[in-house]
Design a protein that fits this description.
The chain is mainly beta and 607 residues long. Helices cover 11% and strands 34% of the residues. Strand 6 and strand 7 form a beta hairpin. The longest helix is centred in the N-terminal third of the chain and has 11 residues.
């Protein structure tokens, strides 16, 4: 066994050198004879759809939900897919002709999934009450009122609340403001229709979003690109509803929507009538709110049937903290020249819209980066609307917002499922990935498994996989092969033209290399004994050796782990130091299957 240097004259493979195995035993301990060094396992489910449908399978985990299979099914099909050994359940989603069914399946006990033939789940308790006419509301600053109005009243209100600089900003741009049906404030707000998410066709979506919204910043700020999709567009006539799935804010904000024809200009958006759908977000979870369409020309009565081809935009009237903390009374009652006026009031601190262009006046006064209030995206094939109820200053680094200061800009304060026929939004779903981490036949005493590190992203049903180089901690030329076809030398894949004696991404995670797409067979599996068929050829001055999937029970040079955010050890840090449960797993393949989830401080690379 030689050192990590291209100047060494020979390279010996592990089966030629007992030193590696002896050091492994001395440092890590005995190896379980059945240890395959692979966190991936292959599952099989026979899915009966009863009709032609698309079937998608996602992992169910508090670490995130990842796509592991997607395929067309003509009545019935057996689907084989890879999941981490830590996973017990998956979501199986059937979509056909716009309809969606979902089942949560225990992969340890179930071998078959049957769709159809079930009694439809009762989703809501919506009454058949006729729609009431909209009620006119007016704005002073960001405060919304119903009742009598005069210029003198507006001036007196401004004086009473003491605003000095905001009142020249948003006043709805001379557009009309209406309440859906009868005006309601925070005090008398009637919650929407009851909707039971548990057991419904959207249960998986609600759980997936909730897990993502409480995850680390990398998973939250990835919503930023989807704040640029500031509208939804109806594809056919029908109802458009919002189902509340998440709330994490103490600000009792109101939700506003408005609609325009396709391609509306900023001025047309400003002048469009605005509608208050939800005066208070305090009770949005497990509630369904149906948008009402009011014909601009008043040719027909209010209806919940939206026409096709309409663009629907959203905004938040950002209220003060719950229970009116630090705010004014919720009503105004004093005598004007026109008589006694009692005005139910919705008081707020600002109003932000989904289109960042509409917020320039507010963000300029606040000193914020121009911000959109909402993110619009899709997960598990379902469209989602989520809101940021404040703002702040941030810069964009690698396409993501980096807040300056302590401002929270995460677009996860309130979230809704969009229930209705609208154009498909861009997906935030990620496909399950795996990481192969390798020792390069160098020193026999570090076992840091960062010499060759790359990920493989793949979902059953696809005939391609994506290879992404992540780290090169060795100083020997190391070329990645798949089924004996060359993919590339790891240093050059990470940084084109880099010499092999330069270590890359062994202190910080750094930038990944350019992904490479390869063709794989329909039976491809990372859980196979050959770990997908990958091997590494390591070259010295006068010899070479091959790293491949280890035999069960042998000292490994290659291990396969769940690739979702795994952090490999820093240079010359033993994997047993970076992950203190690794030794448990090495000596018993049934224990500590989640060893790779929690690295010890300062021993794994930094994000």
């Amino acid at each position: 066994m030689t050192g990590c240097s291209p100047n060494e004259p020979t390279i010996k493979s592990i089966d030629q050198n007992q030193e590696y195995a002896d050091n492994w035993k001395n440092i890590i301990g005995d190896i379980d004879p059945e240890q395959s060094w692979n966190i991936a396992t292959q599952c099989s489910l026979t899915v009966n759809t009863g009709t032609n449908a698309t079937v998608s399978i996602y992992t169910k985990s508090n670490r995130g939900s990842y796509l592991v299979a997607q395929t067309e099914v003509s009545g019935s099909k057996t689907i084989k897919f890879d999941v981490p050994k830590t996973i017990d359940e998956v979501y199986v989603v059937k979509t056909a002709q716009g309809d969606r069914e979902v089942q949560t399946v225990n992969i340890n006990t179930a071998s078959q999934v049957n769709f159809g033939g079930r009694t439809a789940f009762r989703q809501s308790t919506r009454s058949s009450m006729p729609l009431m006419p909209r009620e006119k509301v007016y704005a002073v600053d960001y405060n919304l009122f119903a009742g009598m109005y005069s210029n003198s009243f507006g001036d007196d209100y401004i004086n009473k609340i003491g605003y000095t600089h905001y009142h020249d900003l948003y006043k709805s741009w001379e557009s009309e403001i209406y309440a859906i049906q009868e005006w309601q404030t925070y005090d008398n707000f009637t919650v929407g229709e009851e909707y039971t998410l548990q057991g419904s066709k959207y249960q998986d979506v609600a759980e997936t979003c909730a897990n993502m919204y409480v995850a680390d910043d990398d998973n939250i700020t990835k919503l930023y690109p989807y704040t640029q999709n500031y509208k939804i567009t109806t594809t056919e006539a029908g109802e458009i509803s919002l189902i509340g799935i998440y709330r994490n804010t103490n600000a009792n904000s109101a939700l506003v929507y408005f609609y325009t024809d396709k391609g509306a200009t900023m001025e047309e958006q400003k002048k469009a009538d605005k509608y208050v759908l939800i005066p208070s977000n305090a009770n949005v979870v497990n509630r369904k709110f149906t948008l009402v369409y009011y014909d601009p020309d008043n040719n027909f009565a209010p209806t919940t049937t939206f026409p096709a081809g309409k663009e629907i935009h959203f905004g938040l009237v950002r209220g003060y903290n719950a229970e009116g903390s630090g705010a004014l009374d919720k009503s105004v009652d004093w005598t004007q020249e026109t008589g006694d006026i009692y005005v139910p009031t919705m008081y707020a601190s600002l109003c932000l819209f989904s289109n960042a262009e509409l917020n320039k006046d507010v963000t300029a006064v606040k000193g914020w980066t121009n911000i959109s209030s909402s993110a619009l995206y899709s997960t598990h094939g379902v469209n989602i609307l989520s809101f940021e109820d404040w703002g702040g200053k941030f810069s964009i680094v690698d396409g993501q917002p980096v807040p300056e200061g302590t401002n929270s800009i995460d677009w996860n304060d309130i979230a809704f499922i969009i229930d209705g026929k609208v154009e498909e939004l861009p997906t935030i779903d990620e496909t399950q990935s795996w990481i192969l981490a390798c020792e390069d036949l160098g020193n026999t005493d570090d076992f840091d498994f960062n010499d060759i590190v790359f990920s493989i992203t793949y979902a059953a049903g696809s005939e391609t996989a994506t290879i992404t180089p992540l780290a090169a901690g060795g100083e020997l030329a190391s070329t990645v092969f798949f089924n004996n076809e060359r993919i590339g030398e790891i240093h050059d894949m990470l940084v084109p033209g880099s010499p092999s004696n330069v270590m890359l991404n062994t202190v910080t995670k750094g930038n990944a290399g350019k992904p490479v797409t390869i063709n794989v067979g329909t039976d491809f599996s990372m859980a196979a004994t050959d770990m997908g068929g990958f091997n590494i050829v390591v070259e010295g001055n006068s010899s070479q050796a091959t790293i491949a999937a280890p035999e069960a029970g042998s000292a490994p040079q290659m291990i396969c782990v769940d690739g979702t955010n795994w952090l490999w050890p820093t240079e010359r840090t033993s994997i047993t130091t970076a992950y203190d449960k690794f030794s448990i797993w090495a000596t018993d393949h049934t224990q500590a299957l989640d060893w790779y989830v929690t690295p010890s401080d300062n021993n794994a690379i930094v994000k």
